[in-house]
Amino acid sequence: MPETPEQQLKGFIAKFAPAIGKQICECRAAMRERLPTAHELVYDNYNFFVIGYCPTERPSDCVVSLAANSKGVGLSFYHGATLPDPCGILQGSGVQNRFVRLNGAATLSEPAVLELLDAAVAQAASPFEKTGSGKLIIRSVSAKQRPRR
């Protein structure tokens, strides 16, 4: 019997050191609470394990994602370069993407991060549903990956 998406997700997270795996799970729970109607698009890629939060099932509509590697977890804003950042917490210099390193799920509750999340949701091309729940969708798994531990 094939694995469910939730079982696959647990397997991806199990590749990480226990402390990072725990952080991924706690951050995911915080993001599900914050964006309960978002679809979670999962990518177990070469460099990063990513859970994208999207108002639709289209990857191009992704607003924000959790991105993890062996060093830790970050919150990536797909259109972060256009977000207001009065506290100067966004990192990165790409044309589009910016990120915040997460010391744990508590970072997702900090006022500056909450403001960025609100701004990202507000500028999303498609609105998030007001009610219901999103799907967990495994989008891509790379055969080769950097070590997760």
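The above is record 1. Record 2 follows with the same two-line structure.
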Amino acid sequence: MDKVVFLDRDGVINVEKNYLYKIEDFEFIKGVFESLQYLQNLGYKLVIITNQSGIGRGYYTKEQYDKLTLWIKKEFTRNNINITEIFCCPHGPEEGCDCRKPKIGMIQQASAILDIDYENSWIVGDKSSDIQTGINANICNTIQVKTGHSFDEKSSKALYIINSIEQIPTIIKS
């Protein structure tokens, strides 16, 4: 079975910027490459799951999103990181799709290509909806990072709260 770390994109992988779709505006969060290499060395598959309602709202196109995503994948490859897949929900919150977090559609899509070991997998996000996605998919290992949207730590349902993805090695040990 595959141990997987599901990662939100904005606020976890990169600096949170509203409706980010331009390469020139994209900034990786400090320590992301080292942390993902660490997880990869522990045998985890890395999957990014991201709500991108800017597509559904007409702020940018699917083609613009795809161009940025291709660039992101190339940057990870240049840093010896294999991202198994990047899943995107392009819908707005009012569309009622099955893929928008906290629904589990993107995790179900991942389960079509991976034999996921849910008990030993993790989800890392900056929003309560990311954490709730993990809970809804029976992924009990949840980490909420403070590098994205602000949140009330006392009301967080995350198993762990860390300052940034840079601290992943202090939490995930095997």
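The helical segments are 32-41, 53-56, 62-78, 105-111, 128-136, 168-171.
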